[in-house]
Write a structure and sequence with these properties.
Structural class of chain A: alpha/beta
CATH superfamily of the largest domain in chain A: Hexapeptide repeat proteins
Oligomer: homotrimer
Strand content of chain A: 25-35%
Helix content of chain A: 10-25%
CATH architecture of the largest domain in chain A: 3 Solenoid
Number of domains of chain A: 3
Low-confidence stretches of chain A: none
Number of helices of chain A: 5
Number of strands of chain A: 40
Mean pLDDT of chain A: 95
Strand order of the largest sheet of chain A: 8-11-14-17-20-25-28-31-34-37-39-40
Shape of chain A: flat
Radius of gyration of chain A: 27 Å
């Protein structure tokens, strides 16, 4: 892949400022550029790097005004970040695609594999599994009995899909994620715990992405349900019977307890945690490390553990650091008031 | 599997209310029932669903009184949740069992496999490992050198058991969990850290269940010890030399630092974390997201980070949201007391 | 392996107190010793165990004075913990080493494997991967296309290294860790999220250790960069474009958001979490469960979420438990001051 600044501007409907013939063949962070790399400036926080970067071409917003002249060639576009994403997508599509079924893939004779799939070395597809068209199943991935997978899905190495799970179209499952493990269900029986069989399954609808080493437990009965467009980061826990609404996103290490119902377009910060059997309304935002004990109404933004309104939490947090001082002041006031009372009653 | 309401009532020693001949062939959540599904109502929080569910049969508690007539057939039992668990167990037992040693399982000639085991495709059993009777080792599971596994254990795909670990009877290890990885032990050496070899092992006693992608580190020397009946959820971290007492349960993403000793019958909430070298007494309850810096006495319930008595924590948390108001009031009082002092001394 | 107390003293430049001919052949925790085991006492917290341990030999610090006579043989050394580490290392080196390329390892013909490597059963080395000398690649490990691995590395079972990642010399990657999974990058597009291709990679420099089931995401462009000597525990999340400075250590379940820059010699407590795009100075210490929202200067020690100075946090935490009492006192004072004002204005 090699493009001139002019070619890039043409692709992006941008304008060149500097040498239109400079050629770039890779991407770089703005602080690490080389003469043959393309970078971008979108977040003003990183502006100082542009005055030192060696990157041959820099994508900038149309209205960017450098404070000193730049030696790099600029390509001005309406939205530098969106333009970068478009270029990354073109580069991604130019990469050589994996294809074909490896001789050392282990596919049960009863399994069905759609057209144009890649099935890698040592991937294992069990009895009666059905995989759609144009899927990529990497080495060491495991697809259990009776699993159904739609079209255009990617399963990276060491993914485990337990029996009976259902995966929609265009889903991406990163390495080591586990779909359909038993929910954590036990009934006390005297001094011990007795396992409650988990006979439901997991359903991922279309366009879902699941991060590396994330776990999604199967339902006791019925389904743990991840709706269309949900994006889940690495090391997240989704317990049994949870339902996650369309286009909700969850950052790494979030943990959702059993039977929680989450609305559409919610955002979960990293390491946030939810108690079981609660509801989260549409478009709610749960801050990082927040602990949610009860229902959250739609459109609310909460923070803290237990979580409260996010702005209130931040304001209270500022005061938290003054608690020792407040305690001393309170004691001082008590003494003074006591003294005043004495003087007044003299 | 298909049963009539009457057959179910007979199995559960319950009574039928409605059509005893209605047939069901699967389980459903109460909000998702179909005419051929069986569901249950135990938690009163879900009662409103019973007036709309399509489920053919609903298990209810003996004393349940519907507020309007129901079209579904009810089976009344002393404890609807326990009755459901019993039915799930019967359904689980009726499922076709995996058996036999797959031609593409990789078993070292020196390893011993007990009777009636299932060893799946691409499972790998290393030198001198010993596996008991009636175990199920799924595809891609790895059993290291000299590992000993008891009877009736299940290892799901991508489980890793490092060399020398010991697993009791009736243990269930979910996909991707890691037993026996090196503890995190380093000694500072000048500017660097030097690895301290971890030569101990991990011992799981009988009836232990380990969740998906959970990690249990081997001891420096001696053993990391998980006693009988312990149930650990997904993505939990158990560090080296930890000891977990009988029938203790840990929710997802809990993290236990090195050399912690935990008593029997404790309960750990999700995302709770413990500092190293401390003791937790029997039947202690550690709340979700709690951070434990010191020993916890038996029977205590703690919450917060650092953790305090759980009720106190919740009461203090309510006041936390009023801290900005308290700070303003405190300043106001200081001014007023100052004013009073002036007036009094006039 | 069997040594007499005298041989151990000779190796460690220590002195024997007791029977120099007593033989030991394994290591034990001080509370679990047997007549043929060696143990150690370094932390005074564990001193009481020495009066009961059955261990044949106990390493102790030169200046240790038992409060009652001991039946065990003591080996006195300047630093019992360092001496133990040295012995563990000798024992580790005496263990039989794995070697050779297994007949059932799957190595692409274009891959290069250095001298003296062990490649286990069902390991998979993809196209154009290059592995240095003396590496150990365990069963079920996956090394993607164009990955470069240095000398003396260990990859445990079920490790996944995505294409194009670069691993230095002497690195240890524990079971189930994932190197190079896609960063969590999405751009809102109407109601949905559009994936931003992640075309960078991950670079681990020399002497890095990565814990079991830890995930390190590849950069959008450029590299996620883990510098020399960094030690990362289990279940940690490192997001895209993060940079971790030399000899920094991170305890289990820590989570680092995208584009964070971390200095040298920092220490991260378990379950700590960092917001994206911030900087952490050299030698900073981030407490367990801390939540970091902004830059942290070098040498600082912080705690809490949002984090503040660690000592202040602990002092404020003590007062936190008195908040209900403070609230009541504040209300009482308001009433009293009101009363005083009335009396004064009478």
């Amino acid at each position: 892949m090699e493009f001139t600044a002019q070619q890039i501007a043409d692709i992006l409907n941008g304008t060149v400022e500097g040498n239109p013939d400079v050629k770039v063949n890779n991407f770089s962070k703005i602080e690490e550029g080389t003469p043959h790399s393309l970078t971008f400036l979108a977040n003003p926080k990183y502006e100082h790097y542009i005055y030192h970067t060696e990157a041959g071409v820099v994508l900038v917003n149309q209205d960017f005004i450098p404070s000193t002249p730049l030696k790099n060639t600029l390509v001005r576009v309406p939205n530098a970040y969106a333009a970068l994403a478009a270029l990354l997508e073109i580069a991604e599509k130019l990469k050589k695609k994996k294809e074909g079924i490896d001789a050392a893939a282990f596919i049960h004779p009863s399994a069905h594999i759609g057209e144009a799939c890649y099935i890698g070395t040592l991937a294992c597809i069990a009895e009666n599994a059905r995989i759609g068209r144009n899927c990529k199943i990497y080495p060491h991935a495991y697809v259990g009995e009776n699993v159904v997978i739609g079209d255009n899905c990617i399963l990276y190495p060491h993914v485990t899909i337990y029996e009976g799970s259902v995966i929609g179209n265009n889903c991406i499952l990163h390495a080591g994620c586990v779909i359909g493990s038993d929910g954590f269900g036990f009934a006390p029986e005297g001094e011990q715990y007795k396992k409650i069989p988990q006979l439901g399954n997991v359903i991922l609808e279309d366009d879902v992405e699941i991060g590396a080493n994330t776990t999604v437990d199967r339902a006791v009965m019925g389904a743990t349900l991840i709706h269309r467009g949900v994006k889940i980061d690495n090391l997240v826990q989704i317990a049994h019977n949870v339902e996650v609404g369309e286009h909700t996103v969850m950052a790494a290490q979030a943990g959702i307890s059993g039977s929680v119902k989450i609305g559409k377009h919610c955002r979960f910060g990293g390491q946030s945690g939810l108690a079981g059997h609660i509801s989260i309304g549409d478009s709610a935002a749960i801050g990082a490390q927040a602990g949610i004990l009860g229902n959250i109404e739609k459109n609310r933004t909460v923070l803290g553990s237990p979580a409260i309104d996010a702005r209130l939490y931040l304001r209270s947090s500022v005061v938290f650091g003054r608690l020792p001082e407040m305690y001393r002041k309170l004691e001082g006031l008590e003494r003074e008031v006591e003294q005043l009372k004495k003087e007044l009653n003299k």
